[in-house]
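[09:14] KT: can someone run the structure on this one? pasting the chain below
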Amino acid sequence: MQNLSGIFEGPVWEKLAKTANGRAIGYGEFVGAALFDAQYGYYAKPKTRVGYGGADFYTSASLKEGVFSALVESSAKNMLRSAGENPEEYEFYEIGAEPGSQIVKGSKTARLGEKIRIPARAIAISNELLDARPFERFAFRGGKWRKRVLEISGAGGGKVRARESEADPSEEELAHISKYFFAASVEGFSLDISFDALRLFGEICGAEWRGVLLFADYFRTAAEICELPLGTARAYKSHRAFSDILAEAGERDITHSPCAGPLLDTAKKCGFKTFPLMGQERFFMKNAEGEIASIASSPDPFDPKKRELAQLLSPAHMGAAFRILACLR
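[09:31] RB: done, structure tokens below
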């Protein structure tokens, strides 16, 4: 387990030091400030985050030829047809869309800070929404789970000292860990869990609407997470990944891998039929076969859509890294 204590600077840290006022804060509070602070947060800044060139990371939706969009649209409509529904009676609704962009052209969107209002009949979609929600960090030490927290104090010269320590998790947190991550109860093991993402997903599923929910993200199963003793937290800048998530707060994206199990259980409680978590390549091959065949059948060996299709489906590229969480109600 990496201890991230150190001396940091920047407006995010200065503001955190004031609001903390000597108390220890959870990693969720830090990540929330670093990403979403209205003045200094990473997602509040008018900058290009997704894509190439000066961006920090790229996603399936940022590829230029729009193949991901076509596969998502085709998959959702085919799922509705298989359920005996007319897909033309459903509206696409994207949650967490980047400024000036959307996965499916013409869809309604809820961007950062906007209220989520899902239509009564909807195809609710998102791409890398839940991995960027604030998360807490836990460590198994001395035979029990401890919550990793940060003690923040001034270090002079506009700098801030953050020292990692531990606190007792809440009963709710311990119950969640015991239910989904019991196998991770190994000395030194670290877990990153976003209760904020689970809450947001619960609000989405609990709203009064029917249709398809398709979320693409770095989802992992609980069993997979229990094989990753260092946790899944990471930061991105200029297409490079960093394990030190405290550095350059507000200037880098911070993310983790959401666990699919609690999310699927939440969807079931809200009346959704859930499907097994699938890698992006397998999901699209199963649900967008016609669209894939149409693109692949192009006689032009240099067709950019064919190249993009290969990038999306290849396990060596995006095909295995991204998973699709699908539900139907």
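[09:33] KT: thanks! The mean pLDDT is 90.
[09:34] RB: yep, looked fine to me
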